[in-house]
Amino acid sequence: MHRTMAEPSWRELYKPKLVTVLREGYGLKDLRADLVAGLTVAIVALPLSMAIAIASGVTPDRGLYTAIVGGFLVSMLGGSRFQIGGPAGAFIVLVAATVERLGLGGMALAVALSGLILMAVGALRLGTFIKYIPYPVTVGFTAGIAVIIGASQMRDLLGLTLPGKEPGPLVPKLLALEQALPTLNPAALCTAVATILMIALLRRWRPNWPVLLIAVTVASVAVALAGIKVETIGTRFGALPRGLPPPQLPPLSLDLVVAVFPDAVAFALLGAIESLLSAVVADGMTGRRHRANAELVAQGVANIASALCGGICVTGTIARTATNVRAGARGPVSGMAHAVFLALFMAVAAPLASYIPLSALAAVLAVVAWNMAEKHAFALLLRASWGDAAVLLSTFLLTILRDLTLGITVGFATGSLLFIHRMAGTLRVEGSAPLVAPDVADRSGPLPDQPTVRDDDILVFRLSGAFFFGAAAGVSALFDRVAARPRAYVLDLTAVPLLDSTAATVIDGLTAKARRQGAVVAIALADPEARHLLSSHGLKAPRVYFGRTQEQALARVRRVLGRAPGGGSQVPDDGEA
Predict the structure, then answer these.
(1) Of 280 and 456, which is predicted with more confidence?
(2) Which of 40, 479, 503, 558 is least surrounded by Cβ atoms within 10 Å, i.e. has the fewest?
(3) Of 266-275, 276-285, 477-486, 560-569, where does mean pLDDT reach its minimum?
(4) Which residues of 96-159 form beta strands (DSSP E)?
(5) What is the structure's pLDDT at 370?
């Protein structure tokens, strides 16, 4: 009933994907593709990292430190081939609240502690539980993130001028953008539209070219030569920083650790969820498989290093990871290259990067968001069933209207309840027992079908499917409705792949009923683990007799009835038949 599989070794679980890619054979062509992808992602990450940092209540250079240090380590040590690490919009509210309450030192300590927590989670091999996230949750979460990314780019896409700080939540953001529509900059809008059209046409006619890089470069050159008045990286953020600060330990005291620990836990949980979901999205786009526990350990190391270098939270970023994949990345070298290019921008190319129009970068991210949305999968799940649609919509709506953590939590809970409901419906009970008429009209419980044996003194029930807490109530109600008073009951559980304590309690109830009637109970069960579970609930001889097959259980019952008619409990157990 259960297959034993060899446990993967520590080396297999935590070996970075970089090692795997290099051992598979990594040539000059692969390096060229990764460098182009890394440069493309770096161009996207440059203003985005600074913008996230500013929105988080810290200076823009801290966002760059996070992308450089954290992004390099995530790619070098991580368990995903295509993951891009860096600051993420999902952390803006959490980081801003921590900075406001505890200052930059408290925020740095919280980030470092979250790294330790992530490493512990990975070391305990808890990262594999991400595989239990239902597909509708992944699609809903990804679509929600795509909507958030698209909305966040509308300001630069349209060249709007807001009177104050742009709101973070979606609805207030859209209201603020609507009020700012009179400030629309036609030049910025034209630049964005031209960039989007260029990307679309190049992808159709030259799909192997670095489309995103070409589009941004052409837009930058055109704006600079024509003197078009649009906002650029330089006009908004000023001169870029020239290098990384020396590593420095955050302030440490017992009181501060206690104060920041809840924030560190929140950072770690959100980082784990978003990083692994980002890796799952990359897997879905590429057909590859990530190592969840190795990814979490890498995220932990990256967060600790980011805190030491003045950065903020590091996580896997869905938008930049998707950009990396679509830019033609071949492996983790692209993520490391993206960090190196960001460092080069800081050191020598700050004047050139300053000419990049924000509207062109907004257009790139708008295209990324459109491609991330998985529109076909979204529509398919809406039509698939009411359960899948409920999981999808609850995840999607809560992600865009509240926050991604709540969206994932509610979506996962809804999906789990749906799974339990569906699994409960897979259990089938076959038997020949006459039943007491039900006292309600509801016939949702499992009902008997074809009789498996024809013996007036023995009632046989054959169960097939998962017998667990979700199906236990229906089976218990069925047993309670048995009107006959046989001399023996036989439960055939050989087709039950799953048996839990609730099911054992139901069987114990049938055994108690049989004892009151002076009847014998036998169970056909070949799984030693399931038999041990039943024994731990007191279901062993002389209360219950076991056989490996239904025929053996029936033979045991008939032998017991022949020795002690009506009182099988007087016969000692002599082992399995």
Answers:
(1) 280
(2) 558
(3) 560-569
(4) none
(5) 86
Q: What is the mean pLDDT of residues 505-509?
A: 90
In the numeric block, the tokens 């839990």 are attached to 500
Beta strands, E only, 287-397: 315-316
The parent domain of residue 14 ranges over: 10-161+170-416
Kindly state whether residues 404 and 439 are assigned to the same domain.
no
Length of the chain: 577
Claim to verify: residue 384 and residue 493 sit in the same structural domain: no
Q: Quick check: is 203 in a domain? A: yes
Q: What is the DSSP string of 33-95?
A: HHHHHHHHHHHHHHHHHHHHHHHTTS-HHHHHHIIIIIHHHHHHH-S-SS--EE--GGGHHHH
Convert the pLDDT of each residue in 231-256 to its tens digit. 887 787 776 778 888 999 998 889 99
Q: pTM value?
A: 0.71
Our count of domains for the chain comes to 2
Q: Is residue 342 part of a domain?
A: yes
Percent of the chain with pLDDT over 70: 89
And the tokens for 355? 């000419």
Q: Are residues 519 and 443 in the same domain?
A: yes
Q: In this structure, are 79 and 205 located in the same domain?
A: yes
pLDDT of residue 8: 64
Q: Is 485 in the same domain as 410? A: no
357 beta partners? 232
524, containing H or E segment: strand 520-524
**Residue 3 belongs to some domain of the structure:** no
- Distance between CA 35 and CA 328 in Å, rounded? 10
* First and final C-alpha spacing in the chain: 19
The answer on 409 and 302 residing in a single domain is yes
Tokens of 565: 């008619």
Could you give phi then psi for residue 341, rounded to 5 degrees? -65, -40
Judge whether residue 259 has pLDDT over 70: yes
Residue-wise DSSP of 262-301: HHHHHHHHHHHHHHHHHHHHHHHHHS----HHHHHHHHHH
Check: CB of residue 269 under 8 Å from CB of residue 405: yes
Q: What is the pLDDT at residue 558?
A: 86
Final residue belonging to a domain, choices 416, 444, 474: 416
Same domain, 344 and 320: yes
In a domain, 505, yes or no: yes
